[in-house]
Amino acid sequence: MNHYETVFILNPVLSEEQIKETVKKYEDLLVSKGAKMISKEDWGLKKLAYPIQHKKSGFYHMFEYTVEGEAINNMEVEFRRDERIMRYLTVKLDKHAVAWAEKRRTRNKQTA
Q1: What is the pLDDT confidence band of residue 29, given thresholds at 50, 70 and 90?
Q2: Cα dihedral sign, 52-57-58-61
Q3: Rounded CA separation 76/79 (Å)
Q4: Residue 7's closest CA among 47, 36, 44?
Q5: Which of 2, 34, 58, 78 could be disulfide-bonded to 9 (CB atoms 3.0-4.6 Å)?
Q6: What are the tens digits of pLDDT across the range 33-89?
Q7: What's the rounded Cα separation, in Å, for the pair 62 and 58?
Q8: Stretch 12-17: mean pLDDT
């Protein structure tokens, strides 16, 4: 099992219900492929550095999870097919990044 982090940007014209539905869809997809969800973060509506599909903002979400490598391919194919997803990035974390992510999670819990 490898440790991964995926950040994806949702279209800003989506309703709150559509956003929740989309996030749930990808979480369920990962869990069905045997993933263990470690953390989910909703970063909210953020201004983009440059326009994507003529949009200047987007809803950011991040998943941190462990799963076998084959599941990543399936999820990214679904990301490409879904018009609600504007961009995505999946990164495999090494031991240093895993430690940093743990620190970030505890720091975020303390400030919340």
Answers
A1: very high
A2: positive
A3: 5
A4: 44
A5: 58
A6: 999 999 999 999 999 999 999 999 999 999 999 999 888 999 999 999 999 999 999
A7: 13
A8: 94
As a whole number of angstroms, the distance between CA 67 and CA 7 comes to 16
Closest CA to 65 of 43, 40, 32: 40
Q: Of 40, 29, 24, give the one whose Cα is nearest residue 76.
A: 29
Residue 112 confidence (pLDDT): 67
* Rounded Cα–Cα distance for residues 58 and 52 (Å): 9
The label of the residue with tokens 């949702």 reads 10
One-letter amino acid for residue 36 of the chain: K
Q: Mention every residue, 6+ apart, whose C-beta is less than 8 A from residue 98.
A: 3
Length of the chain: 112
